[in-house]
Amino acid sequence: MSKQTLADLYANWSQLEEQKDKWQTLSLQKLFQDDPNRASRYSVAAAGLELDYSKNHVDEEALNLLLGIAEQADLAGAIKRLLRGDHVNNTEDRPALHSALRYQGEAKTDEQKAVKETLQKMEKLVNDVFSGVWTGFSGKKITDVINIGIGGSDLGPRMVTKALTPYHTGDVKVHFVANIDGAEIDDLLKALNPETSLFLIASKSFSTLETLQNSLTARQWMLDNGCSVEGLAQHFVAISSKIDKAVEFGIGAENIYPIWDWVGGRYSLWSAIGLPIAFAIGMENFYKLRTGAAAMDEHYANAPLERNIPVLMGLLMFWYSNVLDSHTQAILPYAYHLQLLPAYLQQLEMESNGKQVSREGKELNYQTGSIVWGTEGTNGQHSFHQLLHQGKIIQPIDFIATLSAHHSLDHQHKFLFANCVAQSQALMTGRDLETSIAELRAQGLSDDEIHFIAPHKVHPGNRPSSTIFMESLTPETLGALIAAYEHKVYTLGVLWDINSFDQWGVELGKLLGTHVATAIDTTDIPADWDSSTQMLIRRFTEKNQNL
Ligand code: F6P
Predict the structure, then answer these.
(1) Which residues have C-beta within 8 Å of that of residue 289, sequence separation ≥ 6?
(2) What backbone phi and psi angles, to 5 degrees, belong to 376?
(3) Is the CB of 402 inside a 6 Å radius of any atom of ligand 1?
(4) E strands within 131-262?
(5) Does residue 506 have its Cβ closer than 6 Å to ligand 1?
(6) pLDDT tens readout for residues 35-90
(7) Mutation choice for ligand 1 from 148, 153, 489, CB with most ligand atoms inside 8 A
(8) 532, CA 20 to 30 Å: which among 12, 289, 371, 418?
């Protein structure tokens, strides 16, 4: 069977491909010289965010070609289908209704009513813990809340909790445990008091190995440290769509907070999966996070495609991935508290769009998804920015910045912002050979030295980036930022004709993980396994005879 190509999907695809060289060499500096209004023309503001995409390799012609593709993909129709709850997750035959989790109007549908009820239940729990109505087994007030979850049941809440540090109420300390590596929970338990610890077991499926094992470890630790079996009810609550499994694990039905099949794990931080966030910043601020996301939903639903932030972010990434052959994208938040954003976006983008067949199961011959990576500025400048400036890989970058900070060290915030802007400027302008030579000459170097050193100082420039900025990082602007990326991911899924809401690709590794664990337990290693796998298991069993 022939593979699906982008030319099968888009009539103007060959026109785009034929001009690849032209797009690749399009001079950003010339685009700015030719159009003094380029920055304002190529900027959009919505929901408290501004996207400046003027330092990208696109001109009016390129944008029109991309908008033509969006039209052929019926992106406008696809956005409507997502937001009204059509079964856009076609392989699992269900909607992807994360937007319903932050819906602001009166609850009318079953989903909206279920969300409202759950928010009320969350609010009661948070307030009861804060006020001391909910205590530990010995009657002491809860001081520490520990989220046990992984992937979508960890990364979103962990990232937001860190991002909104200035909003922490201080009523409880919030911690996260994800890894099956016992080192993580072992380190944490050493610092906790069982009498004052509340564990949130967050697992949509309630069958994730890491989460169940860590929960069993926490449960045993409680029992070993003075808590009775009955007392456990005061120390464990669960968030899951599999209520029966959570009950089977020993959590009382009244202590289970539902999520639903129509919410993807990596899109779920707005639901009860966001409980750790609510414990950190209080329910009022949790509501504000949802409000910010709802404002971005509104913008995604109603703004024309050419002025629509998530649509533009998606179209640009499609451009870089499929026309300009970039395989990666860097996320560089110039905001210390956003340091976990790249890790969160890795799951959001790569688990959603790392796909190799179309929505109908046809093999694809074009790139989908891209490698997301990054860290907070200015730290990255002193490590990997060398490659961004002089390496041979050209990739798009999202700089994220805030105009004001939550602290009073204004001069440091000025340097932070200045560095962010300077990086995007330097990546674009570069430094040519003549300038390098002139600089070295001014320093008094000999001709031989100049001849040797100058090429090493050349920065080719013309490297693309977007800047997303906001007044300051608040629950509302963070909500809008996350929702913008969620919708960017869906936009790309539509353009690539893939289902962004399943994740079958994680299954095989999980299955083989249990097989390998069984082989270790039984020391019965299947003879038809490859010699490398056999050798590695043997080395482990030799060292761990008494497991
Ligand atoms: O293994 C991948 C995955 O299924 C993610 O999609 C999900 O976010 C994570 O595991 C955790 O799943 P759960 O919430 O069901 O424990």
Answers:
(1) 160, 164, 270, 274, 277, 281, 475, 476, 478, 479
(2) -80, 145
(3) no
(4) 144-148, 173-177, 197-202, 236-240, 256-258
(5) yes
(6) 999 999 999 999 999 999 999 999 999 999 999 999 999 999 999 999 999 999 99
(7) 153
(8) 371
Distance CA 542, CA 538 (A): 6
d(CA 127, CA 125): 6
Q: What are phi and psi of 407, to 5 degrees?
A: -105, 180
User: For residue 209, how far is its CA from the centre of ligand 1 (angstroms)?
Assistant: 10
**Does residue 174 contact residue 236 with C-beta atoms inside 8 Å?**
no
N- to C-terminal Cα separation, the chain = 49
Round the CA-based radius of gyration of the chain to a whole number and report it: 26
365 within 8 A of 297, measured Cβ to Cβ: no
Is the CB of residue 208 below 6 angstroms from any atom belonging to ligand 1? yes
Would you say 392 and 460 are in contact if contact means Cβ atoms under 8 Å apart?
Answer: no
Handedness of CA 246, 248, 250, 256 (dihedral sign): positive
Q: Vertex 247, ends 243 and 249: CA angle to 5°?
A: 120
Cβ neighbours around 108 below 10 Å, total:
9
Helices (H), 403-530: 410-429, 433-442, 447-453, 475-496, 507-522
Look up the pTM and report it.
0.97
Tokens in use for 155? 């990364």
pLDDT digits (tens, 9 = 90+) for 180-207: 999 999 999 999 999 999 999 999 999 9
Q: Please give the angle made by the CA atoms of 310, 315 and 318, to the nearest 5 degrees.
A: 125
How many angstroms separate the alpha carbon of residue 117 from the centre of ligand 1? 24
